[in-house]
């Protein structure tokens, strides 16, 4: 009995498409005009209930159950993402406020304040958002591209403002003059 269980455990999960049961083969053959054969065989053979099914009715029930399980894990992923993205919404709100404050400081000639505000409260926000998503339960960042682009952009803005703090292009010097040099 124990040996039988061991054999079942060892063989069931590893079924490849090439070793599909005849019921699965027949089911997938019937669907060949609408379902790619590899996909059909692969999905069904990988599922224990489907692999052990002895009639099409059991294969169909297994197919619905597989789908329910997968939809459920997508639902969980969406819940995790919703939670983590709402954290990002907080980060980015703070970032936009800091950039507005930084811009006001910059326009008023308070370059150091502008730079501090941007560096301390804005430069790492896109990165922090992205990291929180990758470290979260969903382990992925659906706005990865936006985070990367915005991270590059805020670094650029911070570095340009920093030129004024270091007085490399700031004060009386005009950018056009530098370009003409
Ligand atoms: C199912 O089809 C595959 C080829 O697609 C074949 O290798 C396999 O023996 C078939 N299984 C049964 C039980 O007929
Ligand atoms: C559906 O699949 C899950 C996971 O494979 C399994 O635990 C459960 O018993 C299945 N439910 C039915 C009704 O077959
Ligand atoms: C989906 O997952 C929840 C737990 O996250 C569980 O309570 C529920 O039974 C699952 N539904 C299905 C169809 O597996
Ligand atoms: C960063 O933002 C906080 C408010 O969230 C503010 O108190 C602080 O002064 C800001 N830091 C700098 C350097 O402006
Ligand atoms: C920043 O993110 C916004 C949307 O979140 C996107 O439209 C924009 O292209 C991103 N990158 C840059 C460089 O603005």
Automatic annotation (TrEMBL):
InterPro entries documented for this protein: Invertase/methylesterase_inhib (IPR035513), Pectinesterase_inhib_dom (IPR006501)
GO MF, one example: enzyme inhibitor activity
Gene3D superfamilies assigned: Invertase/pectin methylesterase inhibitor family protein
Signal peptide feature range: 1-16
Domain Pectinesterase inhibitor per the UniProt entry, residue ranges: 23-114
Entry superkingdom: Eukaryota
Disulfide bond is among the record's keywords: yes
One Pfam family of this chain: PMEI
Entry annotated with the keyword Cytoplasm: no
Keywords for the protein's UniProt record, in alphabetical order: Disulfide bond, Signal
NCBIfam families: PME_inhib (TIGR01614)
Similarity field: Belongs to the PMEI family.
Protein name, entry field: Pectinesterase inhibitor domain-containing protein
Species per Swiss-Prot/TrEMBL record: Paspalum notatum var. saurae
